[in-house]
Design a protein that fits this description.
Distance between the termini: 44 Å
Radius of gyration: 16 Å
Strand content: 15-25%
Helix content: 40-55%
Strand order of the largest sheet: 2-1-3-6-4-5
Shape: globular
Largest sheet: 6 strands, mixed
Number of strands: 6
Number of helices: 6
Structural class: alpha/beta
Order of helices and strands: HEHEHEHEEHHE
């Protein structure tokens, strides 16, 4: 079989997508079974509403931040989900992250996003491939993040076209919190 540039790129992409899937499967095993997906969003943010909608289309459930974000986090974390993922403004993200720490959760990845895409930050190389998937989705970063949080085995979201990312929206903070080992 002759190796072409197209086959090499396709192989590299499929290998790059396999790593976050294997990381998620290993994460599920460490947590003792299937990950109970939890999505949280700020309904005032366009990206938050897109995140919730994409998560629900993928089979998850999303809770809106209405009122006290800390109280919402405490309520949701009482059932000890394997992860908590969301998109909100920075103050709510900080409040939820601090509340989650008291339940033994730690940040795995944080995002800063706007119309044209997002940037991702992580301290653990296990989550780098997920960050590449979300950042690579460009203007569809909220959808890519939600789909992964619901089911890492789902097909990644395609990057947004230029027409789809025009407009102005507030800068949003995305976050993925996992149970500390």
């Amino acid at each position: 079989m002759k190796l072409t540039r197209r086959k090499a790129i396709a192989g590299g992409l499929s290998a790059g997508l396999a790593v976050p899937l294997f990381a998620a499967l290993a994460f599920r095993d460490r947590q003792g079974g299937a990950v109970e997906e939890r999505l949280v969003f700020d309904p005032q943010l366009t990206s938050g509403r897109r995140f919730a909608s994409a998560g629900e289309r993928a089979g998850g459930t999303a809770r809106a931040i209405e009122g006290d974000a800390t109280r919402l986090a405490v309520e949701m974390l009482g059932s000890r989900p394997g992860l908590l993922a969301g998109i909100s403004e920075w103050p709510a993200a900080l409040a939820i992250t601090e509340a989650a720490a008291t339940f033994g959760y730690r940040p795995a990845m944080t995002l800063r996003g706007g119309d044209a895409g997002c940037s991702a930050f992580t301290e653990n190389s296990q989550w780098l491939d997920l960050s590449h998937i979300v950042v690579g989705a460009q203007g569809n970063w909220a959808e890519a993040f939600a789909r992964w949080a619901v089911d890492p085995a789902l097909e990644p979201v395609a990057p947004a076209t230029t027409a789809a990312i025009l407009g102005r929206q507030a800068i949003a903070s995305g976050w993925l919190l996992i149970k500390a080992d």
